[in-house]
Design brief:
The chain is mainly β. It has one domain: YVTN repeat-like/Quinoprotein amine dehydrogenase (Methylamine Dehydrogenase, Chain H, 7 Propeller), CATH 2.130.10.10. It contains five helices and 34 strands. It starts with 7 loop residues before the first strand and ends in a 12-residue tail after the last helix. Keywords: Membrane, Signal, Transmembrane, Transmembrane helix.
């Protein structure tokens, strides 16, 4: 595939012809069990690709079937001096991979929970390291028969989020289940570690969209707090929450809700209050809304919100670059009336053969002023976003590769790339790092980014979450058998008789 470097900013009028998208009417790649791989797959994945300032160093398959590996979300944890990637899948359980030596990733365990989506978050509670793992739709017969289903007595019609104890990464343990009848497409842990916000991401199936909030101060006995109502906006593919990001202080939540982005005051996380709303007709499907704050040259600060458009819910594509990144200024009082700075797209404008081409899971690294993002068939991308501190633009401004304060500084793509998420846990002073992709087709990929030309950054190093004191396995890991009796009645109240249709 051609890799031309387009480094220009233009107006909507000049760029409309290149970026006009033929948008399917339904998010077919996300219905039922969630995403499906749309790229072709041989018995073995491709061993070589093309990129800039990046190289591929390792691939790890989740099984030996030769079929699509169904990789989804990815998170990281450092425990007792070793680094681990937690790789979600659509039906193969949580893959726990030792990445202490990035060029030689080694799977140390699989949390056997055969559910769809597998979004992951990690947090600590006293002497435990915990992770959440989502069941979108229903767990189904296979999920109920897998270990998490047996541990927690799940019914095939159950949907929601499983909490897992990973204090000993090689021995993950089921802790509890948070039933959400409309499913957990994604969920987000409040920075306090005391509350979980659930995003069901349903298509237009209800005029009463809501975020389900759970109190998880006692992880073994989570308690539902409320279904927080959000506005019904009957445009795009729906108005339910798809994903939520908190600011570091936990006082704001940014809700990516398909046809809208909501800004909530979460000073009291049990009782959020809506303070802002963005409805942008140029965004087909709001997938993620993440804030970042910069220090300007004059010493003042500027806060921006980056919104990803997962065009058509990751349906098969006929063109690239698909949906891009839309940037809003939310500094100070603008948080209640955000001002659009412009939109950014990867520098690939070409016909597409049906494999998905659109923005997906991103991660921003505020101190390093960098971003990583997965772009499905267009692989993995690295951006220098330091220019956002002073970038100027308008709702009509479009950037391809470089503009509105962002420039692509690295990428890598395989012929069979179908990458869902791309993140890193460590960054060196020269900006170089090993990055980890979780791919619907390929499984687990490790990449090496060679660094930022002419710029140094503060290093990023993970915090070790090893328990502060020693505890026996029996005391440290709450047995599922002790949890089930207290939760059995709640589970009975949340049985479901049909599967649901979801957006991305």
């Amino acid at each position: 595939m051609p890799r031309s470097r387009l480094a220009r900013t233009t107006t909507l009028a000049a760029g409309a012809a290149a970026l006009c998208l033929s948008v399917p009417t339904a998010a077919v790649a996300h219905e039922g069990a969630g995403d499906v791989a749309t790229n072709q797959r041989a018995f073995q994945v491709a061993s070589s690709g093309a990129g800039q300032r990046m190289s591929h160093v390792a691939n790890l398959q989740y099984d030996r079937t030769g079929e699509a590996q169904n990789g989804s979300d990815i998170e990281f944890v450092r425990i007792a001096g070793r680094d681990y990637a937690l790789a979600g899948t659509l039906d193969k359980g949580m893959q726990i991979i030792d990445i202490s030596r990035p060029t030689q990733p080694k799977r140390v365990a699989v949390f056997d929970c055969k559910v769809s989506q597998g979004d992951i978050q990690v947090w600590t509670k006293k002497n435990r390291v915990l992770a959440s793992y989502t069941a979108d739709g229903t767990v189904g017969a296979e999920g109920a028969r897998s270990r998490c289903g047996r541990d927690l007595k799940l019914d095939p019609d159950d949907a929601g989020t499983v909490i897992v104890d990973i204090t000993q990464p090689a021995q993950p343990q089921s802790v509890s289940f948070l039933p959400v009848p409309r499913g957990s497409h994604n969920m987000t842990i409040h920075p306090s570690g005391n509350f979980l916000y659930n995003s069901n991401s349903d298509l237009i199936s209800s005029t009463r969209p809501a975020i389900t909030i759970y109190d998880i101060r006692s992880p073994s006995l989570p308690k539902k707090v409320q279904d927080f109502r959000i506005p019904f906006v009957p445009t795009s593919l729906g108005s339910e929450s798809h994903d939520i990001t908190f600011n570091a202080a936990g006082t704001r939540a940014f809700v990516a809700a398909l046809s809208q982005t909501l800004i909530l005051d979460t000073t009291d996380p049990a009782r959020p209050v809506q303070i802002g709303q963005i409805i942008d007709p140029t965004i087909n499907l709001v997938h993620q809304s993440d804030p970042i704050t910069f220090k300007r040259p004059d010493g003042s600060t500027r806060t921006l919100l980056v919104i990803t458009d997962e065009r058509a819910g990751a349906a098969a594509s006929t063109e690239c670059p698909g949906g891009g990144l839309h940037v809003y200024d939310i500094t100070g009082a603008k948080v209640r009336n955000p001002v659009k700075v412009g939109a950014w797209f990867i520098p690939v404008v070409q016909p597409q053969d049906g494999a998905v081409c659109t923005s997906h899971v991103l991660r921003m690294y505020p101190r390093q002023k960098m971003m990583t993002i997965a772009w499905y068939s267009q692989g993995v991308r690295v951006l220098d976003i330091s220019g956002l501190a002073t970038a100027q633009g308008s709702p009509a401004t479009i950037a391809l590769g470089q503009g509105i304060g962002m420039r692509e500084v690295g990428h890598y793509t395989f012929p069979d790339s179908d990458t869902w998420s791309f993140k890193t846990n460590k960054i060196n002073r020269d900006g170089s790092f090993y990055g980890y992709g979780n791919d619907l087709v390929r499984g687990f990929d490790v990449y090496r980014f060679r660094g930022l030309p002419g710029r140094t950054v503060p290093p990023l190093a993970p915090r070790d979450l090893a328990p502060a004191r020693t505890a026996s396995s029996s005391a440290l890991l709450a047995p599922a058998a002790a949890v089930v009796p207290a939760f059995a009645f709640a589970l009975l109240l949340h049985r479901r008789s049909r599967r649901r249709v979801t957006a991305p």
